[in-house]
């Protein structure tokens, strides 16, 4: 039987749309990231997260982002090049009240500037929120 906490973390990968066999690239890792979320994604996808230097096509980009990390719009433009046409970027930001919190309006502005579409927000653990971004051409496409 799965403990309640374990089921919650495994459910996070499912809420993020992680399916077996998909390729996930992680950008912005630091010591403050939620390792349980990372482990759940690796377990559900069946493979390790690719690092920032990987140069293969990916289905999902997991972007850990904090207030002091720079210009989000520029980063989104830079990181989306390896993304598959139907791929998504999950921008992981600290929740309100946590160090590094990013205002939702800042995310919306950056998403618009980068020419992407924001589709949903979910809570991932105690400290992080995830914002789902897609390319406009795939905004209405369901996987």
What does this molecule look like?
This protein is of the alpha/beta class and 143 residues long. Helix content is 29%, strand content 27%. It has helices at 4-15, 35-45, 72-79, 104-113, and strands at residues 24-27, 58-64, 83-94, 117-124, 128-134. Helix 1 (4-15) crosses helix 2 and helix 3 (72-79) crosses helix 4 (104-113). It is globular and about 35 Å long. It holds the Pfam family DUF3052. This is DUF3052 domain-containing protein. InterPro entries: DUF3052.
CA radius of gyration: 14 Å
First CA to last CA: what distance?
30 Å
Question: What is the makeup of the main sheet?
Answer: 5 strands, mixed
List low-confidence stretches.
1-6, 139-143
Sheet-strand content, in percent, reads 25-35%
Which class of secondary structure composition applies to the elements?
alpha/beta
Spatial shape: globular
Record the strand order, biggest sheet. 1-2-3-5-4
Look at the structure and give the mean pLDDT.
Answer: 90
Give the helices and strands as they follow along the chain. Answer: HEHEHEHEE
Alpha plus pi helix count: 4
Helix content: 25-40%
Strands, count = 5
Pfam families: DUF3052
Protein name: DUF3052 domain-containing protein
List the helices and strands and how they pair.
Layout: H1 4-15, E1 24-27, H2 35-45, E2 58-64, H3 72-79, E3 83-94, H4 104-113, E4 117-124, E5 128-134
Parallel strand pairs: 1-2, 2-3
Antiparallel strand pairs: 3-5, 4-5
Helix pairs in contact: 1-2, 3-4
């Amino acid at each position: 039987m799965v403990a309640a906490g374990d089921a919650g973390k495994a459910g996070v990968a499912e809420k993020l749309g992680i399916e077996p066999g998909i390729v996930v690239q992680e950008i912005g890792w630091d010591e403050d990231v939620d390792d349980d979320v990372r482990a759940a994604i690796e377990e559900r996808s069946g493979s390790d997260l690719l690092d920032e230097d990987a140069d293969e096509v990916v289905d999902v980009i997991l972007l850990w982002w904090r207030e002091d990390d720079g210009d989000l719009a520029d980063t989104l433009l830079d990181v989306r090049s390896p993304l598959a046409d139907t791929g998504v970027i999950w921008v992981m930001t600290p929740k309100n009240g946590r160090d590094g919190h990013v205002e939702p309006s800042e995310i919306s502005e950056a998403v618009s500037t980068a020419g992407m579409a924001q589709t949903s927000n979910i809570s991932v653990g105690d400290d992080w929120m995830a914002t789902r971004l897609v390319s406009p051409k795939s905004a209405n496409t369901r996987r």
